[in-house]
Amino acid sequence: MRILIAEDDAVSRRLLEAKLVKWGYDVVVARTGDEAWAELRKEDAPRLAILDWMMPGIDGVTLCRKVRTEIWEPYTYIILLTALCRDEDLVTGMDAGADDYITKPFKANELRVRLRAGRRIIELQNELIEAREVLREQATHDPLTGLWNHGEILRILRSQLSRAEREGADVSVIMADLDHFKNVNDIHGHMAGDAVLRLTARRMLSQVRNYDYIGRYGGEEFMVVLPGCDLEKAGVLAERLCQCIGGESMDIPDGMVPVTISLGVVTTSKGKKYDTDTLVQAADLALYRAKENGRNRVEIVIWKDRVLG
Ligand SMILES: [Mg+2]
């Protein structure tokens, strides 16, 4: 494990470094508080740090405070090293965010076991972060297609709408629904249906910009949220989505299956306030019209004083 030593005294620094190397640590050395801060701010900063209290530039306690207020994650385990050994010094150090405190001259074995405790904390935190990421992925994504799930795509739409309102920008929404999807399931089975849904997601993702969002809204229904995209561009994209699904049969284990999709497009008009329900209903209505007008096509919503045209 990598460890940072920040110590301005050359003799102590070398002594400390020699011990840590002997114990198998990968040591990063800083001679001033500023050098230490530069190391701690790096993306792959050491997760363990031994900071001398008295140093030129930023001192150890100030450094502790900076780490705790400016670096949220991942956690840096900090041991303060100092000649100050009064109770109030200990309190000051711990209040600044240090995890542990060792007085100089340090006892090698004591430092060694305290570092072991620090390592255990870091490892536990890594496990927690990993578990949280898995849960977050599960809570926000559709497991079959890997797209955003229903709740998350609506949350994204809501946040994009308030952002667009602040910045005076457009947001477009496309609702898309595979045509006669029930037939795929009935004729080829549910495995084939799942394969079609996965391929649909992949094809749609290949058409959008990397700051657009696609969610699986329901069974075979998808919602696309396009920040900063006006009606004309959204219409063009919807046509492309229609083409990328219907233009070529889907190659699934069961054989080649022709699939088409219907899409409804809506865009906010600048300077007006929208809630998600209004936009979703409007896009849904356009989608319904696309189905009525023969499927495998795009219909666009034109607002007429907030009455759908
Ligand atoms: Mg010093």
Would you give an account of this structure?
By secondary structure, this protein is an alpha/beta fold. It has 2 domains: 2-139, Rossmann fold (3-Layer(aba) Sandwich), CATH 3.40.50.2300; 150-308, Alpha-Beta Plaits, CATH 3.30.70.270. It is 48% helix and 21% strand. The chain is built from 10 helices and 14 strands. It has helices spanning 10-22, 33-40, 60-70, 87-95, 108-140, 150-167, 181-188, 190-205, 231-246, 276-292; strands at 2-6, 26-30, 48-52, 77-82, 100-103, 171-178, 213-216, 221-227, 250-252, 255-257, 261-267, 298-300, 303-304, 307-308. The strands form 4 sheets. It has a 5-stranded parallel beta sheet with strand order 2-1-3-4-5, with helices on both faces. The chain has a 5-stranded mixed beta sheet with strand order 7-8-6-11-12, with helices on both faces. Strands 9-10 form a two-stranded antiparallel ribbon. α2 packs parallel to α3 and α7 (181-188) crosses α8 (190-205). The protein is elongated, with a radius of gyration of 29 Å. The model has no long low-confidence stretch (mean pLDDT 93). The structure holds magnesium ion (MG). Magnesium ion binds at residues 8-9, 52, 54-55.
